[in-house]
């Protein structure tokens, strides 16, 4: 099992919309998260910064993320959530969520 | 079980020292983390920002954190790690790690 942490900013004028959407994430989006091997997925917010944490139970993370990106429901969902977000400085071009490095873990 | 996310900054000149310390966290510090009901504890870093995630298995989080703060090994450890960190803007006075709000979770 691998752990993944990522960070992105919220556009201030879109914060309430992002929160509203996440109070009722679509069942098909949740199903695709499961299907892509993502477990124990949490998103936190403070001062306009989102941090996400999840555990990956599969064996091809890149392929599972590609399957998610190809899923019609997920694509519709991202069409609503992407405009709420803006990358942190230094994020790769075209990337919203920027990966963080794990520097400590204890079970 | 409750999940906790927190954020703090690293002082740029202390980042390497923080990483060095966390490559070999003292066994007594890890033991106190366990004793205080903290599980699945991970710290991530990107661009001088630390994000921590853990799950709390006990039933009095405040008392368990106080026990940690009173533990001699943990106090010695924090004497080394605290000077590596600086609070984010808006953190409570005297607070290093600032709590984040959970805005989404799926198992």
In short:
The structure is a homodimer of 107-residue chains. The first copy, chain A, has 107 residues and is α+β, with helices and mostly antiparallel strands.
Structure, described:
- The structure is a homodimer of 107-residue chains.
- By secondary structure, chain A is α+β, with helices and mostly antiparallel strands.
- Chain A is 35% helix and 34% strand.
- The first copy, chain A, has helices at residues 15-22, 27-35, 61-70, 72-81, and strands at 2-10, 38-46, 49-56, 85-86, 98-99, 101-106.
- In chain A, strands 1, 2, 3, 4 and 5 form a five-stranded antiparallel sheet that branches.
- The longest helix of chain A has 10 residues, at 61-70.
- The A-B interface holds A 3, 5, 7, 18-19, 22, 25, 30, 33-34, 39-47, 49-51, 53, 88-90, 98-107 and B 3, 5, 7, 18-19, 22, 25, 30, 33-34, 39-47, 49-51, 53, 88-90, 98-107.
